[in-house]
Each structure stands twice: as C-alpha cells, then as structure tokens.
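This protein record is not my work; I was only asked to verify it. Take the sequence as given and treat only the tokens as open to question. I have pasted the whole thing underneath without changing anything:
***
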Amino acid sequence: VQLQASGGGLVQPGGSLRLSCTASGRTFYNYAVGWFRQAPGKEREYVAARSRSGGYTYFSDSVKGRFAISTDRAKTTVYLQMNSLKLEDTAVYYCAAGQGVITSSLSTPDSYAHWGQGTLVTVSS
C-alpha cells in the first residue's frame, strides 16, 4: 500500500490546516490509520489514529480537542483536521496504515506496515 500525505504548509498560530492521506489503488477499508509527526531534532511522536472500522478515533493529549480525524465516504482518503495550531505543532506529519492493529497499539509506530512520505506543517507568525 502506497500512502501519500499532503496538505501541509505555513500557517499562523491559531490557524487551521487539513492534511490528507490517500492510498494509491485501494481503500482504507479494514485498515487502522495513524498520524505521527517529527519535529527537527526530536523523535517521531504519535498524534492521532482511527480504528480499522473507522468508527473510533484517538488523540494524543497534546492535540486532543484541537485535531480531528475523518474519512471520506469512499474510504480512499483520511483527513487530519488541525485547528488552533500552536508553534509546537510544527513538524513533518506522516500518515501510516496497517491491518490488524489493535486499539492498544494504535500509538506505536511499529504497528503500521505502510507509511507515507510526510508533509511539512510550519506554524509561525
């Protein structure tokens, strides 16, 4: 499964961005999808995830209440809506997908077999 993350850019603090994750040639049916980010000089960090069914979404404490995950009806694109962005949200954002990812493992990068190339989000005034 080849994933493509897009939608990054430069935004001011308090602004919003929507990232997209698409899977080439297939859908996200029965795939858990996670979003991770990596800031310069820091380790990759879990941001958010949706369950295989798409019925449940989970967020790290640092983004809870500000970010949301949704999936289009065709299940070809998973979105990460980011609101009230902060300077510390600046990072390269990656989407990842995997089958058989249980809830307790959604925040673990090794749980995902497929990764996109990343899209840069810069929050700056």
